[in-house]
Automatic annotation (TrEMBL), chains A, B:
Keywords: DNA-binding, Transcription, Transcription regulation. InterPro entries: HTH_LacI, Lambda_DNA-bd_dom_sf, Peripla_BP/Lac1_sug-bd_dom, Peripla_BP_I. One of its GO terms (molecular function) is transcription cis-regulatory region binding. Gene3D superfamilies: 3.40.50.2300, lambda repressor-like DNA-binding domains. The lineage of its organism: Bacteria, Pseudomonadati, Bacteroidota, Sphingobacteriia, Sphingobacteriales. Residues 4-58 form the HTH lacI-type domain. It comes from the Bacteria. Pfam families: LacI, Peripla_BP_1. This is LacI family transcriptional regulator. CDD domains: HTH_LacI, PBP1_LacI_sugar_binding-like. It comes from Pedobacter lusitanus.
DNA sequence: CTGAAAGCGCTAACAA
DNA sequence: TTGTTAGCGCTTTCAG
């Protein structure tokens, strides 16, 4: 079942390979009749261009790397959808690497992608500073690197796609206060993640403004999994800390915490309101459904894909940081 | 930032490209000193082999297609992890395509993968029979095609990885009966999916054996999303059908149904016990946690990857169907 | 308008 | 032990 090539067509039609190629690439220097004959034959014999040959010729792999902390939650898969929307029609392939929230694996993944000869990499960090050298190295080697969601600090000059974590977190806290909550816990993600500190800053600022900031209510976690959320809630209860609401760094933390509270017989939202930050479907598949800051994940993917295409076309253009809007969606977990 | 090639090394060291190549591929016909010199230079200049050139040379793309109905739930991402475990170390890239549970998109994806020149495809169907012709065509063209989870009927000769849906469903129903449930609803998936009919058969067989099968308790859905689960639960209530438990085709259906019942103030598991079939993390992130048949997803991925490697190596070997074991995990949703 | 030939990076006969 | 050459599939000068 050998692939049929341009050569086979040439032999079949007693023409040169260059003529065949001309017909196929819509070159003007070809007689319409010849062209038609070739196209018909190509169709009949089931000719398919070999992308590998083109890649070699043009020095591109048409592969884009996509590096994310995990794909278990819908967060990255949703962003991926946006990326695919843009990149697949253009003939790009996307290679996905999961870092398991482990900077060492992230590092390995990045190096592997370089081996794979990708034309660019879109990445959501698992740890802000750990692999700074590798990011810089990749950029220096001329491979476009686009960051989204968890981006590195300003010292790294690269295209970035993000939302305004600080402000959106502030707004969510304002909402909790508006609905009568006073003892607002924040389950903060690891401070090695920029978003975690940004969201925490928004939280702190508003509470301070209202004169109700209490450091005991700020719980820092080691990670952002469901389990970390559970543990945070457990801590709150075991320390006998009084609270009437929780704002969590992510859906996963919020859900983990909520489930633990529910298991302890605590009423959500009557006794404790819960709000999160993400934009994944997870917020709506739990009961009660979660109030949360919803990021436009698909569009973030599309924008990231657009940025990488720009850089692939011309690596010298200056790097944009795109700040996207996120929406506060109020659901049952903060009502009542 | 041009990539450095074998040619650059040759020029640099005043050697021929073949000698360079020999050093790089560990050929024995080379003087140790020369070899060392070359390897050192390669290291120093940052030489990286160009996979595209090799692919062209050997007629392989080292790309494997992975086609799934969706990646929003952790199901496919977990299987993917298993596939990556096996395939990444071997230098394969994995191209992921989501079919959105739409046979037309699945068809398009498959065709696109063919264009992409993949060496093989691992697929979880979104509809059993609709694209039968394309599957056959791909196989006929010599591209190994491995099915997992939702597999096609016997008429298609290809490697398959599955669990024993029928038996495991039966065991779960027995469990519900053992714990005192008598009016057991089954939320069945679309009958265009083989697993759905298999699991439904297990359900029906056991209930019939116990003389308590009631066709009114078998709800067929149009899909397997959370929303479909909600709708099913809604139907049950609006039709005033009495039931004390639900066995759902998937986690998603179970969760959708459970949330609807919870919203209506129905106690889970006191009034209605819920069990599902899947093996994803979803079962443990809801409250109460779901009893379910857990498939060994990572291993399924590893096995599928193994099967495709076998077929890539020798496409003439006969096709195996691997039936994996699944475990019944009892959680809070069926207690009490 | 068409053909011949070179070249993308690499390997593998075949010579030397 | 090393060098020369052809070729993987395709496009693109350069001749004709």
């Amino acid at each position: 079942m050998k692939r049929i090539t341009i050569k086979d067509l040439a032999k079949h039609l007693l023409l040169s390979t260059s003529t065949i190629s001309r017909a196929l690439v819509n070159d003007k220097n070809i007689h319409p009749d010849t062209k038609k004959k070739i196209l018909d034959a190509a169709e009949k014999l089931g000719y398919k261009p070999n992308p590998t040959a083109l890649n070699l010729k043009y020095g591109q792999s048409k592969n884009i790397g996509f590096v994310v902390p995990e794909m278990i939650t819908p967060f990255s898969s949703t962003v991926l959808r946006g990326i695919q929307n843009i990149l697949y029609p253009l003939g790009y392939r996307i290679i996905i690497m999961q870092s398991d929230e482990n900077p060492l694996i992230e590092r390995k993944n990045l190096l592997l992608l370089e081996e794979f000869n990708v034309d660019g990499i879109i990445i959501n960090l698992c740890h802000e500073t750990y692999n700074h050298d590798v990011y810089q190295q990749i950029i220096d080697r001329g491979i476009p690197l686009v960051f989204f969601d968890r981006i590195p600090d300003k010292s790294l000059d690269a295209p970035k796609v993000m939302v305004n974590d600080n402000i959106k977190a502030s707004l969510m806290i304002e909402h909790l206060i508006d609905t009568g909550r006073k003892k607002i816990v924040h389950i903060m993600g690891p401070s090695t993640i920029r978003n975690a500190t940004e969201r925490a800053m928004g939280y702190k600022r508003i509470l301070t403004k209202h004169g109700i900031f209490d450091p005991d209510l700020l719980i820092k976690t080691e990670g952002a999994s469901f389990e970390h959320g559970r543990i945070a809630a457990q801590q709150l209860l075991s320390k006998n800390i009084e609270f009437d609401s929780i704002f969590a760094f992510t859906d996963t933390l919020a859900i983990g915490a909520m489930n633990y509270l529910l298991e302890q017989g605590i009423q959500i939202p009557e006794e404790v309101a819960i709000a999160s930050f993400s934009g994944t479907e997870l917020a709506t598949i739990v009961h009660p459904q979660l109030t949360s800051v919803e990021q436009p994940l698909v569009q973030m993917g599309e924008v990231a894909a657009g940025l990488i295409l720009e850089k692939i076309k011309d690596n010298t253009i200056s790097n944009k940081t795109i700040v996207m809007d996120a929406a506060l969606i109020y659901r049952a977990s903060t009502r009542g």
